[in-house]
From TrEMBL:
Keywords: ATP-binding, Membrane, Nucleotide-binding, Transmembrane, Transmembrane helix. It comes from the Bacteria. The chain crosses the membrane at residues 80-113. One of its GO terms (molecular function) is ATP binding. Residues 273-453 form the FtsK domain. Residues 527-537 have a biased composition (Low complexity). ATP binds at residues 293-300. This is FtsK domain-containing protein. Residues 516-526 have a biased composition (Gly residues).
Length: 537
């Protein structure tokens, strides 16, 4: 019986097997690397000798053509060709540089014969042809008219008849210009809305579109708008006195850019964004602002944004008609004259404000009549923030609005600006004087076309997009055009769910807590008899 294997035999077998597998793997890797290296050498060689390959292919084709001609030609043509070739050779021999010219002619012919004769692929449909036809087919039920002599929109028709110009970004339609029948009722808002809904459905609902209706020439231009920047953290903006950054808009809506820090924790993360700037004081014809927004649309955030910037060079009076305590963080800050929450407090404040407006107007008139500079206390900006004043209640609210009449009318002269907010359902309850004097309008959140027209005084001409996030909307200054708006991110620093970093950032933007300047505010010697300067929540 054979002796058993030594104890080291299994280990030795495993080492041999492992070494064999390693050798096989190395051999495979070497072969693979060699094939790859050979492929690269072949590719480079093909590029290097491409002219010679081209000429060689042409010479072969020349020889094949000559052989085929000699084979198919009759005897008399062969004899004539032979005689002509012999005479050509003799003539080239005696001409200066004749052999070189002959060689050059042969090479030129070879270059021509060696060209790539692969037929180009058949042309496919133009980019976006299917999408444009889909838009056209969707518009046919709304724009087809049997009385239209041009028959621009017909079932089964071609979009090229009606679409004059179009632009694509990849496969996404970015601009479209079309003509429509002169019999289409383009002055009907409902008819326009139907066309806009079809375009959004066929071109993509995730974007906003600007519609320009040229009713004189029966043309419609649709342009896809680039997305606005996301909510920018509140910060100190590079602006002049009496300029308030309400938010940011499209680059085509303003001719100004300001540096903005997208991440307050990283000072290097600064970019240039187009701002929506509201100018107050004597340099504007729209010193008062009305913001219309639904619940959680961002109107109180807008007031916080205005307050933080107004306190840099002016005074602020905050009126919280809802009693939610959204302005409690302003109490006790320098420049904050008063924070009101009840109708009685508001009456005291507005009574003082009426007297203050009259005092400022008289002081300015006397200074100009005497040729003297206007006193500082008569031209220091004063901002009155009214959060949903329609909630003050019935007849009392009407009396309170009467007290605002003089500050509203003299706001531009006396440097007094009123910022009011309202919900869409509260517009009918606001005093006509307030509606008539607030020529700067802002709408935040989603609204129907009738509500937008009532709030802005004009249709924005912009539709589409998904549900608007908080702080998104439109702005209009006086009789100007309606522009898009994204307000800054300005949370309430006293809310429990506000992150600590945002809370510290907002509190750092406020003036350090302390007393008010003497001789200013309700209760000072200049107006009113309110016993205290500040009544906080």
């Amino acid at each position: 019986m054979p002796s058993p294997l030594p104890p080291t035999a299994p280990a030795l077998s495993r080492r041999l097997a492992a070494a064999t597998r390693s050798g096989i793997s190395a051999t495979r890797a070497g072969l693979s690397g060699g094939r790859a290296q050979f492929g690269r050498i072949r590719h480079h060689a093909r590029d290097m000798f491409a002219p010679l390959i081209h000429l060689g292919r042409g010479l072969r084709r020349e020889v094949a053509w000559a052989r085929a001609w000699w084979k198919d030609a009759p005897a008399d043509k062969r004899k004539a060709a032979a005689v002509g070739a012999a005479l050509t050779v003799v003539l080239l021999y005696f001409l200066p540089f004749g052999p070189l010219l002959a060689l050059g002619g042969i090479m030129a012919g070879a270059a021509w014969m060696g060209r790539d004769r692969t037929p180009p692929p058949p042309p496919g449909p133009p980019p976006g042809d299917g999408r444009l036809q889909a838009v056209y087919n969707g518009l046919v039920p709304h724009l087809a008219d049997d009385h239209d002599p041009a028959a621009l929109f017909t079932p089964g028709g071609d979009y090229k008849k009606a679409f004059e110009h179009h632009e694509f970004d990849g496969d996404r339609l970015t601009r479209l210009e079309l003509r429509y029948s002169p019999y289409f009722t383009d002055d009907d808002p409902d008819a326009r809305a139907r066309i806009e809904r079809v375009v959004e459905a066929k071109a993509g609902r995730s974007r906003e579109y600007l519609y320009e209706w040229d009713t004189e020439n029966n043309k419609l231009t649709v342009a896809a708008l680039a997305p606005l920047p996301g909510p920018v953290p509140a910060q100190h903006y590079v602006t002049a006195p009496c300029e308030i950054v309400l938010g940011f808009t499209d680059a085509t809506s303003t001719n100004r850019l300001i540096p903005v820090a997208l991440d307050p924790a990283d000072p290097a993360a600064v970019c240039q964004l187009p701002p929506v700037i509201w100018r107050t004081g004597t340099r504007t014809n729209a010193p008062h602002l009305l913001a219309v927004a639904g619940p959680a649309a961002g109107k109180t955030t807008l007031l916080r944004t205005v307050a933080l910037q107004a306190l840099r060079d002016g005074d602020v009076i905050a009126v919280d008609a809802t009693g939610s305590g959204d302005f409690a963080y302003l109490a006790g800050r320098p420049g904050v004259l008063r924070v009101d929450t009840t109708a009685e407090q508001v009456r005291e404040t507005l009574t003082w404000l009426r007297g203050e407006a009259a005092r400022r107007a008289a002081a300015i008139a006397d200074a100009k009549a005497a040729g003297l500079p206007v006193p500082e206390d008569a031209r220091r900006p004063l901002w009155v923030l009214l959060d949903e004043p329609a909630e003050l209640g019935g007849g009392a609210a009407g009396d309170l609005f009467e007290l605002l009449d003089l500050p509203l009318r003299l706001g531009r002269t006396t440097h007094i600006s009123v910022v009011a907010t309202a919900r869409p359902a509260q517009l009918d309850r606001l005093h006509p004087g307030l509606l008539g004097e607030t020529h700067t309008r802002i709408v935040l959140g989603g609204m129907d076309e009738a509500q937008l027209y009532a709030a802005l005084g004009a249709a924005p001409g912009i539709a589409g997009g998904e549900a608007m996030p908080a702080g998104r909307g439109y702005a209009r200054f006086g009789a100007g055009a309606v522009i898009r708006l994204q307000t800054p991110y300005t949370p309430d620093p006293l809310e429990d769910d506000t992150p600590d970093a945002d809370r510290r950032r907002i509190l750092d933007l406020l003036p350090a807590a302390g007393g008010l300047a003497e001789g200013s505010g309700p209760g000072s010697a200049s107006g009113g008899s309110v016993p205290s300067l500040v009544k906080s929540l």
